Amino acid sequence: MKNILVVEDEFSIRESLQSWLRDLGYQVEVAREGEEALKRIEEKDFDVLILDLRLPGKDGLQVLKEAKARKPKLHGIIITAYPSVEKAVEAMKEGAVDFLPKPIDLSYLEKLVQEKTEATLAPKKPILVVDDEASMRESLRDWLKDSGYEVDIAPDGEFALKLISERDYGLLVLDLKLPGKNGIEVLKDARQRRPGLKGIIITAFPSVDTAVEAMREGAIDYLPKPFTLSELEKLVAENIETAQVAILPQPVSKKAIAAILKILGRAGEDSQFLARMAESPEEVLREYPDLTPEEKEAIMDGDIKKIESWVGKLDEQKATWLWCRLSQEKW
To answer: Which of the pair, 251 or 303, is modelled with greater confidence?
Structure first.
C-alpha cells in the first residue's frame, strides 16, 4: 500500500499536492479540515498523512495525535506557513516524522514520503486467522494482507494446531465457536507448544464467563463481533512480533560523538560559527573529518532523534538549535 492523505484547507495547495503525488505513483485522497480527515482515517488505511498546521476546527497537531491513537503505524508530516520552534518541538513529540515550513521543498518531501512508504522494518512473524465462517476468515486475511502482514487461515482448531506446529506465528486471531475445539481451547494448546504466542479471541456470542476464561488462558483481548477494524489494527500493531531482531545502525565512534557535541555547542554559543553554518554547512562540516556523511547529514537536517540515539539526551541549548534547524528558522 502507498496511500497518502493530504489535509489542507487552502484549495490550491491541496490540489497541487494531490496532483504531484499522484504523478509520483501514489494513491492520494484529500481533506480540507480535521474532522473530515479523521473520518477518512477511520475508514481507510493510509501510510502517510500530510497535515497543514493551521486547519479549521482541530489544528494539524490535534488531528495527528488522534490519528496516531487510532492508527499507530501512520506516519504524519506537518507543513506550515507559520513555523516556530515550539510548534516544531510539539509536532515531533506528537509523533510527526518531520515539520516542513512552506514553501515546501518538494524534492525533500518526495524523499521523505518514499522512505515512509517503503518496508524498512524487520519482517514480522505471520498471523494465523482461525474462523469457520469462510467470508469472515477470508475478509480478515485480505484486510491484514493489505495492511502489510503475512497471513495464513484455518477453518477449525485441529488444522490451526497443525499449522502452529509447523510454523512460528506472531499472533493468532481466533473465533470463539469452532468445530471441535473452541477458540479458547486452541489458544491454550497453542501456548503450551509455543509459550510466547499471543492470541485475540473474537466472537458473535460474547459472555462474561468466556471473556474471563479467554483472558485467563492468555488472550490479549476479547472482541465481540462486529468489532471495528481500527480496533483490531491497533491490537495487531501493538502485539505482532518481528521474525528477527531489527538491524540496528552501526554505533558512531567516540571521536564522532565528541565532534557532534562540539558542533552543537558552538552553534549555541558562537554567532560567527552559526552564520557560517547558515551559509555553507557542508563546507563547515568538512572541517570535521571524524564525521561520516550520514552523521553530517543528520546535523544539517536537524535530525534530533538520530543524533540523540548516538550521543544521548542533549541539553536544552543544543537541542534547541537542532529544533531551530528542523523548522528552518536558523542555521
So the answer is: 303
In sequence order, what are the residues at sequence separation of 6 or more whose Cβ sits closer than 8 angstroms to the Cβ of residue 74? 41, 46, 47, 48, 49, 67, 68
Cβ neighbourhood burial of 249 (10 Å; 0-12, 13-18, 19+): exposed
The grid coordinates of residue 292 equal: 561520516
Query: What is the Cα gyration radius of the chain?
Result: 24
Mean pLDDT for the stretch of residues 83-92:
85
CATH of 127-239, picked from 3.40.50.170, 3.40.50.300, 3.40.50.720, 3.40.50.2300, is 3.40.50.2300
Distance, in Å, from the CA atom of 228 to the CA atom of 205, rounded to the nearest integer, reads 16
Burial class (CB in 10 A: 0-12, 13-18, 19+), 34: buried
Kindly indicate whether the domain formed by 3-117 is annotated with CATH number 3.40.190.10.
Answer: no
Cβ pair 189, 211 in contact under 8 A:
no
Answer for the pair 219, 186: CB distance below 8 angstroms, yes or no.
no
C-alpha cell at 143: 484486510
User: How would you label 129-151 residue by residue, b for 16+ Cβ within 10 Å and e otherwise?
Assistant: bbbeeeeebeebbebbeebebeb
Give the torsion sign (CA, 283, 81, 83, 270).
Answer: positive
**Beta partners for 28?**
4
Per domain, the residue ranges of the chain are 3-117, 127-239, 254-326
Give residue 320's pLDDT band: very low, low, confident or very high (50, 70, 90). Answer: low
**Single pTM value for the model:** 0.43
